[in-house]
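Kindly inspect what follows.
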Amino acid sequence: NLPNLEILDLTGSKKLIECPNVSGSPKLKDVILDCCESMPEVDSSIFLLQKLERLNMAGCKSVKSLSGNTCSLALLQLNAMDCINLQEFSVTFASTDRLILGLTNWSGNELPSSLLNKKNHDSIYFPMIECLVDLPENFAKRIWLVSPLNREHVHPSITLHKILSSPAFIGVKLLVISYIPTLSEIPDNISLLSSLESLRLIAIGIRSLPETIKYLPRLSELCIYDCEMLQSIPALSRFTEFFIVSNCESLETVLSTMGGPYNHRPIPVTCMPGIEYWFDYTSTQVSFSLELPPKLFGFVYYLVLSQGRVEEGVGIGCECYLDNISGERICITSFPRADIFQFPWFYKVIETTIHMMSDHVVLWYDPVSCKQIMEEIKSINDVSGIGYNPKLTFRFFIDENVYDDVVIQECGFRPSKTSLKLHSA
């Protein structure tokens, strides 16, 4: 019994075969069972927790049934995505207001009965299957559709046409359609979604968008990612505020309707022509050595990455090696900002990559590593009693074992004698 426990995280316990009974931990708010692949069921005591806010069990591949007669009023999130064998879902929610529900691998021919009379979910993640037409009006503000686990014989465009005219979709504010490569078109009746404010299309097989999209009266955001077959985009409503297209390699035509009045929003762009001339030390090799300049405040680093694919959190940076007076080598590592290659939140569900279509410059300023170097040198001089001007070796790196198609084409740095405020660019 752990009466004060508030978070239980068993993520990645792939050999766990029995879900713990948590009745002795009434203060639990978060239960995280993601990727417990051998666990056959979720213990019923979890659904009796009165303070439970989040139950995450994504990737629990052995779970076939998820049931609970009562559920916490505080519950905000139930994530059962990628539970590929889930066949029964009978969780009774005390309230679905603000609830985020993920059932991306539901394979039943009918929707769980416990969902049919509920409304006002915050978000649902569900496969694009025809039985979604049975969902009630005002079911959720945000709906995310993914490819069904068992591919239906009906063409996905026909399925989408049916569900777009159903009650649950008429009032939806955010619609995401993702990772359905066989979906070749968005039906014209998308114009029925009169409350739709944001439409996001990710990795689907469309070649164009319907012209009726311009009749969506509240659509302010259109984002299209990784639709490699997309060739053209029709005219959009002049009320569209955000329009993003990324990694759509076949795109040739974008029809603009910007002739009327609209609000200009400036977008800052950092341009760095001749950047190699701004740096005192540049090289086409990833490693070079030099003597330390005096009175340093920090280093400004840069490197040029070739085009190719990288994943979120790609490991890039610079290692600085310092040889002390006794010949011992000390390594100090500098990294750019952690979120330099950061996906938008809606990419988090499925692991993916960023395709860089051109070379990219990464620029960062690091006074911390310089301070470590100066402290090491001072320590050496305090012990030896002599002035020591060491040689530094800089080695720029990218995780080549993972990102073997992206290489460092050029690198360099500039020592700074004043404080700077620079960010990764």
The chain has two domains: 7-254, 277-416. The chain has four helices and 25 strands.
